[in-house]
From TrEMBL:
Highest taxon, organism lineage: Eukaryota
Ranges where the record places region Disordered: 1-28, 243-283
Residue stretches of biased makeup (Low complexity): 265-280
PANTHER family linked to this entry: MAJOR FACILITATOR SUPERFAMILY (MFS) PROFILE DOMAIN-CONTAINING PROTEIN, MAJOR FACILITATOR SUPERFAMILY DOMAIN-CONTAINING PROTEIN 10
Coiled-coil region(s): none
Domain Major facilitator superfamily (MFS) profile per the UniProt entry, residue ranges: 36-500
Transmembrane segment boundaries: 109-134, 166-189, 210-230, 337-358, 370-388, 400-420, 477-495
UniProt protein name: Major facilitator superfamily (MFS) profile domain-containing protein
GO molecular function: transmembrane transporter activity
Pfam families the record matches: MFS_1
Basic and acidic residues composition bias: residue spans: 1-18
C-alpha cells in the first residue's frame, strides 16, 4: 500500500506537467514602464501638433509672403508645397535616423528630435519669405523623421505580453495631436489683432502674426526634451549590454578574474575576446539590417504597410472632400463647422476606443486576424460613399438617414486604427534574426510618409475626374478604391504568422 502511494506521489509532477502543456496558463501582462513610455509618447505627440498647427493660417501666411502676386488661384498651390514638404522631408530622413539609432543608440537620436524641431518651429513662425517657410518646414519634417526610432524604443522596452497595450495608446496620441494642433494655430494666430491691449503692444507679435502658435509649440517640444533628457533610458540591446558590463561590481569582476586564472585562461586574451564580441554586436546589426529589408517576411509586411497607409490616406482625404462638395456635384454640401464637429467627435471617440480595446482584441484574436479584419473594413468605408450620396440626393440634403450612414461609415473606420497598431506589431515580428529594428522601422515609416504625400492627391484627382466626366454616375473613384482594397486584402494572405513572437 505504501509502495503504491509512493509511486502515485512520484508520478504526480509528471501528470501536472502534462496538464500544463495541454492547458497552458495564460501569462499575465508585464507591467508597462510608464515613465519611459511617457517620454516616447510625448516625443511622438510633437509630430501631429507641429504638422497641423499651421493649417488654419498657412494660406494667409502664403499670401502675405507675396509669392502669389495677388493671384488667389495660386494660394492653394503654394500652400500645398509647404504642407507636402513636411511629409516629404520626413519620408527621406526616417531610414537615416533608424540607421543612426542602430549605430549610436536610441536615446541620443530621440533627444536630437525635440531640440531641432523646436528651432525649426521658431524659424517657421519668424519667416517672411515663401522659401524660408519651405526650408523651415523641411527641417520640421526631418526632425520628425525619427518617429520610427520611437516605435523601436517601444518594442524594446516591452514584450509580447504588454506590447499591444503600449501600441494601443499611439492612435490616441495622434488623434489628440491633430485636434490640438489646429486649435492652437487658429486661436493664437494674429494675436496682436485679437488682444491689442496686451499682446498687441509687442511689436514683434504685430509684425509676425503667426509666430505665437509656433512659439507655443516650440516651448512644448523643448519641455519634452528636458523631461526626456532627465528620464529616458537607452534601450538598444548592444549598448544596454555594454553598460551592464561596465557597471558590474568590482567584486564580480574579481571573481571572474579568479575563475579564469584557476582554469589557466589567459586574462588578456579573454578581455580582448570580450571587447571583440561587444564591438561585433554593435556593428553587426547595421550591416545585416540593410540586407534584412530584402527578407521575404519583411517585404510582404512592407507591401501590406503600403496598402494600409495608401488606402487609409485616400479615405482620409475623401471624407472632408465628399462631405463639403455641393449636392449637385455628388457631395453632401456640409459647412466646415459641421464637418469639423463630426470628424472631431469621431477622433476623440476613436482615441479612447483604441486605448481600451486594442490590446484586448490582440489577445483575443491574434495580430494577423485582427489586422486582416481591420483592413477589410475599408470596404465598408469606401462602399458607404455612393450609398450616402444616393440618400442625400434623394432627400436633397442631410437628413437622419444620411446621418445614420455617416455614423455607420465612421464606426467602421474605427477599426482602421487597429490595423495600424497590428501592423506595427507585425513589423516587429517580421524582423529576421540579426536584423536591425531601427532600419526596418525606418523603412516602414518612410513608406507611411510617402503614402501621406501621394495618396491625398491621387484620391482628390480621381474624385474630381469621376465627377467631372460623370463616370459611373460619379462613383468610379469609389469602385476603383474598393478594387484596390480587395487587392490589399489578398496581400494579407502573404503575411507570415510566426508561432513564437520575439520578445522586446
Amino acid at each position: 500500500m505504501s509502495e503504491t502511494t509512493r509511486q502515485e506521489r512520484d508520478t504526480m509532477p509528471l501528470r501536472h506537467d502534462e496538464e500544463l502543456q495541454d492547458n497552458p496558463v495564460e501569462e499575465k501582462p508585464t507591467p508597462l514602464p510608464i515613465s519611459q513610455l511617457l517620454c516616447v509618447y510625448l516625443i511622438q505627440f510633437a509630430e501631429p501638433i507641429t504638422a497641423t498647427v499651421i493649417y488654419p493660417f498657412v494660406n494667409e501666411f502664403v499670401r502675405k509672403t507675396g509669392i502669389t502676386n495677388g493671384d488667389e488661384g495660386k494660394t492653394g498651390y503654394y500652400a500645398g508645397i509647404i504642407e507636402s514638404a513636411f511629409f516629404m522631408a520626413e519620408c527621406l530622413s526616417v531610414v537615416q535616423w533608424g540607421y543612426l539609432s542602430d549605430r549610436y543608440g536610441r536615446r541620443p537620436i530621440l533627444l536630437c528630435a525635440p531640440v531641432g524641431l523646436s528651432l525649426a518651429m521658431l524659424l517657421f513662425g519668424s519667416s517672411t519669405t515663401f522659401w524660408s517657410l519651405v526650408a523651415s518646414r523641411c527641417l520640421q519634417g526631418i526632425f520628425n523623421g525619427n518617429i520610427g526610432v520611437a516605435k523601436s524604443v517601444i518594442a524594446e522596452m516591452t514584450d509580447n505580453s504588454n506590447r499591444a497595450d503600449a501600441y494601443g495608446f499611439m492612435p490616441m496620441i495622434w488623434n489628440f495631436g491633430v485636434t490640438i494642433g489646429p486649435i492652437t494655430g487658429g486661436v493664437l494666430s494674429n494675436a496682436g489683432k485679437r488682444w491689442p491691449t496686451t499682446l498687441g503692444r509687442i511689436a514683434f507679435i504685430r509684425t509676425h502674426p503667426y509666430f505665437l502658435p509656433c512659439f507655443v509649440c516650440a516651448i512644448f517640444v523643448f519641455l519634452t526634451f528636458i523631461y526626456a533628457f532627465l528620464t529616458l533610458k537607452e534601450t538598444l540591446p548592444s549598448i544596454v549590454e555594454k553598460q551592464r558590463q561596465q557597471n558590474s561590481s568590482p567584486e564580480s569582476r574579481l571573481l571572474d578574474h579568479g575563475d579564469t586564472m584557476n582554469y589557466g585562461t589567459n586574462t588578456s586574451d579573454n578581455s580582448s575576446s570580450t571587447s571583440s564580441v561587444t564591438e561585433d554586436s554593435s556593428a553587426r546589426p547595421t550591416n545585416i539590417g540593410f540586407r534584412a529589408v530584402a527578407d521575404r517576411g519583411v517585404l510582404t509586411t512592407m507591401l501590406n504597410q503600403t496598402f494600409l497607409t495608401f488606402m487609409d490616406m485616400c479615405n482620409f482625404a475623401l471624407l472632408p472632400l465628399m462631405y463639403s462638395t455641393p449636392l449637385e456635384y455628388g457631395g453632401l454640401g456640409m459647412d466646415p463647422f459641421r464637418i469639423g464637429v463630426i470628424l472631431g467627435s469621431f477622433g476623440f471617440f476613436n482615441a479612447f476606443f483604441q486605448a481600451i480595446f486594442f490590446a484586448r482584441c490582440v489577445r483575443r484574436f491574434g495580430v494577423h486576424k485582427l489586422y486582416t479584419f481591420s483592413f477589410s473594413t475599408l470596404l465598408i468605408c469606401f462602399g458607404m460613399y455612393p450609398v450616402t450620396k444616393y440618400f442625400a440626393q434623394r432627400a436633397q440634403g442631410v437628413d437622419n438617414l444620411v446621418m445614420a450612414c455617416i455614423f455607420f461609415q465612421l464606426t467602421a473606420q474605427t477599426a482602421i486604427s487597429m490595423a495600424y497598431g497590428s501592423m506595427q506589431i507585425l513589423i516587429i515580428d517580421c524582423i529576421p534574426p540579426g536584423g536591425t529594428m531601427g532600419i526596418i522601422n525606418g523603412v516602414a515609416q518612410m513608406i507611411g510618409s510617402g503614402m501621406r504625400t501621394v495618396a491625398p492627391t491621387y484620391a482628390a484627382s480621381l474624385f474630381a475626374f469621376s465627377i467631372g466626366h460623370n463616370l459611373a454616375s460619379g462613383n468610379l473613384v469609389y469602385f476603383i478604391l474598393i478594387g484596390m482594397t480587395i487587392a490589399g486584402i489578398c496581400c494579407t494572405r502573404l503575411l507570415e504568422v510566426k508561432p513564437q513572437q520575439r520578445n522586446g
